[in-house]
Amino acid sequence: MNDSPKVSVCVLAFNHEPYIGGCLTSILSQEVSFSFEVIVGVDKSDDQTREIVEDYVARFPGRVRAIYHAENVGGQENYFAVHRAASGDFVCHIDGDDMTLDGKLEAQYQVLSSDPDLVMCTHNMFAIGSQNRISKTLWNPRKEGRYNLKFYLFNMPFFCHSSKMYRKSKALHLNRKFGERYDFELSFSDLCAGDVYHIERPLGAYRIGAGTSTNHGESVVNESMAYAAIALYDRARDYFPERVCNSARANKTIQLARQAARGEGWIQMKLFLSLVRGKHALSAYYCYLRLVSTLPVALKRRLMVPKTKLPI
After folding, report:
1. How many domains, in total, are found in the chain?
2. What is the pTM of this model?
3. Domain final position from 149, 173, 207
4. Where is average pLDDT lowest: 97-106, 117-126, 127-136, 187-196?
């Protein structure tokens, strides 16, 4: 087997003491036909995350290496530090609280190796619930197939960040600065260079808790998701006509609104959806922000969505 790694697996860790060991073990247990390296970026943590990673580096010399940050640099800077250090032809990203399942690396490697026009390969993922168990529920499942930039614009995020393997020679994101929800723009940047192939088989497990997720029967919306989506739609105007970007923006607003109100006040939600369709598509962003700003109260009062037309 060639000593030069074909794949670099980049792991981000921050206060992941309960999870990072399981994450790294799941990666190192992968059976593959090629050589791969594991690079762990450890942001300054308040727990034993660094000590656990140091143990893996000591036990797997030449296979696992780490970048330790003396001060908190944040997720984005940690991401770039690790991914820029990757030496493999293909780079896989995993968050330190997620896990890989058998066959992940080999399956994605074979897909990208067989088609040089593909820039990325992703896959479905199981969800890890509050009891720290991998459930049979799939996170935002998608059918197998090839998808392009326009599809991503209308359906983001249709794959989990921890399911990505990309071709480093075509990666356009490594020399850019992004906003708070940088994973949206990372994928958009790379898909400007080619398509993504999505594997329907679940090859990983994603820990619920970021973005839009369900907690104790109520839906929780991360407001930063809306800002990131709008920033991406505005940037997409360089690639698509304004009407396409506005339509995608409205589509995303409807999706988030449905998630925010899942199981709550469906009659009021119909009124909300009517606001963001058709001639009100341009005001979709304002509708969503208004929903988010009243969400805690709205959920208690069965989501009383304003019926008035919002400004464009």
Report:
1. 2
2. 0.80
3. 207
4. 127-136
